[in-house]
């Protein structure tokens, strides 16, 4: 490889991050599903005379977003699971709001919703970060909880609000599964196509970089998860789609082995499919460490949300939940301070644009069903933009949240809404910036060291297992799966370290790259090993691991 891996990847340009619209594949079908999941039951409710309920349905319809891109075989339970969490968030928010209302809704009574929202953000951010679920993240759970905390003021009980959300969930499930009628294998086919394309770019370029290898490995990992979720890899006969991915995986492993040792020939490979990503329990447990990405992120979110909400209450601001939402949206993706700062700027800019859009809608003569149509358009726009640009997504999230808020504040003055939204969003973003730069300032360093340590410890476990087991045995495959998962985490941690402190990252990158290289080459060797699946050179790999581990332990990463 002619591109040196001892240098960290260059950071993305600020203007590109702030205003760029990276390609993320077709999003309009998902946007259409998101709009219909809300619009169908909302229009029906409005026609039947349930006007307040029509707007509350949107809380549950967000569930459709969490099923996007997933095979239909897993989508049917992912959407209800997310929907159940959204419904519970609605009930929790409305219950907290009712308690505050019963206590007079002044002073310390408002701290009840603040505490509930902060704790919900802590749990939701941790779970989604630990599971590596990606966009849209935990934000919508906190959003619907925040909005629901004010519905008791409109005379709507917690059970009633949750029932409306559940209707939205049912609609989301029907809409999310509708594509199975005409393209039942579409999601997994797209995942495999993306993986094959990334692998071909890596194997076809002699100057491919570590970033190219990481991208191919991540796509490959996602594609195997998709075919397993779809049930394709469990069929007695191997479908064309699985064979295509399997061949690409072999080519990827062979290329890594060849570039590591050009003199070593690859004669045969075990005809054994890899395992998918680790289970939910494993991913949640492994992140129960103070230095994990999920733990660091969740702690920052909780502290910033609680502080922003508390200050809003102390200052007598009308909507402390907006300050909390501002902090959560900035921080939910992790401890990357630079990208977090960009997200904060996007949050502020998107809020200003969103408030202007809301003002135009508020002052327009639109009423009734026309407002529902507007909300459908906003739902569509959110789904299309949420994975591409935070600022653009916030531009549509803001008027949607404010329109939902008009249900609980029907007589609110536009000027008050606009000023409160801007002021409290600024408070939330300010606390998010403080958390990014002052709270756990070395989190990215500890996360990188922890992630690399996980790679080494699981590599040692793999070598121990293959001393007595074939590389294709169930136990060996499970550890190989875990090593791959940790390698992806190590790559993500390395990118965050490079973004946060390039001078420090330059000093430690060679050691990090060596850990990374060893893990990938060990996995590739397991794929290309001959002699009926048994490794005959374990001691050589063990000596190399001992050297890498010794250098890692003696390094100054922490």
TrEMBL record:
Bilayer disposition of the protein: Multi-pass membrane protein
Native source species: Rhodococcus navarretei
Superkingdom as given in the UniProt entry: Bacteria
Domain Integral membrane bound transporter: 309-434
Pfam family, one: FUSC_2
Subcellular compartments: Membrane
Residues that span the membrane, as ranges: 36-65, 77-101, 107-131, 138-154, 160-182, 293-315, 352-378, 390-407, 427-444
Designated name of the protein: FUSC family protein
Keywords assigned by UniProt, alphabetized: Membrane, Transmembrane, Transmembrane helix
Ranges in coiled-coil conformation: none
């Amino acid at each position: 490889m002619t591109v040196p891996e001892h240098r960290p990847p260059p950071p993305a340009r600020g203007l590109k991050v702030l205003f760029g619209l990276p390609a993320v594949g077709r999003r309009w079908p998902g946007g259409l599903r998101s709009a219909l999941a809300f619009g169908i039951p909302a229009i029906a409710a409005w026609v039947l005379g349930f006007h307040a309920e029509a707007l509350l349905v949107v809380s549950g319809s967000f569930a459709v977003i969490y099923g996007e891109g997933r095979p239909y075989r897993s989508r049917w339970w992912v959407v209800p699971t997310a929907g159940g969490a959204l419904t519970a968030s609605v009930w929790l928010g409305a219950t907290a709001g009712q308690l505050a209302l019963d206590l007079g809704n002044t002073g310390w009574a408002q701290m009840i919703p603040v505490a509930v929202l902060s704790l919900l953000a802590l749990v939701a951010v941790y779970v989604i970060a630990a599971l590596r679920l990606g966009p849209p993240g935990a934000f919508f759970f906190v959003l619907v909880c925040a909005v629901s905390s004010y519905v008791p003021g409109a005379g709507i009980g917690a059970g009633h609000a949750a029932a409306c959300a559940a209707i939205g969930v049912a609609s989301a499930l029907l809409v999310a599964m509708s594509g199975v009628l005409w393209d039942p294998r579409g999601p997994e086919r797209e995942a495999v196509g993306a993986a094959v394309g990334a692998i071909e770019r890596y194997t076809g370029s002699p100057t491919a970089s570590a970033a190219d290898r990481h991208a191919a490995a991540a796509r490959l990992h996602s594609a195997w998860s998709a075919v397993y979720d779809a049930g394709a890899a469990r069929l007695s006969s191997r479908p064309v789609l699985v064979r295509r991915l399997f061949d690409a995986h072999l080519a990827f492993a062979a290329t890594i082995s060849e570039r590591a040792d050009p003199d070593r020939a690859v004669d045969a490979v075990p005809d054994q499919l890899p395992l998918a990503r680790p289970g939910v329990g494993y991913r949640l447990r492994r992140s129960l460490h103070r230095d994990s990405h999920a733990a660091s992120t969740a702690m920052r979110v909780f502290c910033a949300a609680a502080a922003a909400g508390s200050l809003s209450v102390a200052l007598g601001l009308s909507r402390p939940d907006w300050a909390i939402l501002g902090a959560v949206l900035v921080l939910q993706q992790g401890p990357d301070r630079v990208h977090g700062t960009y997200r904060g700027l996007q949050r502020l800019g998107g809020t200003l644009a969103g408030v202007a859009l809301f003002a135009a809608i508020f002052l327009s003569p639109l009423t009734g069903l026309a407002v529902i149509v507007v909300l459908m358009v906003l739902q569509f726009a959110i789904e299309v933009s949420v994975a591409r640009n935070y600022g653009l997504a916030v531009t549509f999230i803001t008027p949607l949240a404010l329109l939902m808020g008009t249900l609980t504040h029907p007589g609110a003055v536009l000027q008050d809404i606009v000023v409160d939204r801007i002021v409290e969003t600024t408070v939330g973003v300010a606390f998010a910036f403080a958390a990014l730069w002052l709270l756990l300032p070395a989190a990215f360093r500890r996360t990188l060291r922890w992630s690399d340590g996980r790679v080494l410890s699981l590599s040692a476990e793999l070598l121990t297992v293959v001393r007595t087991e074939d590389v294709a045995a169930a136990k060996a495959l499970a550890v190989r799966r875990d090593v791959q998962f940790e390698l992806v985490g190590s790559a993500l941690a390395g990118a965050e370290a490079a973004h946060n402190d390039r001078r420090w990252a330059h000093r430690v990158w060679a050691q990090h790259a060596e850990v990374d290289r060893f893990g990938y080459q060990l996995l590739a060797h397991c794929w290309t090993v001959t002699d009926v699946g048994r490794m005959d050179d374990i001691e050589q790999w063990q000596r190399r691991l001992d050297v890498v581990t010794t250098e890692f332990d003696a390094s100054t990463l922490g």
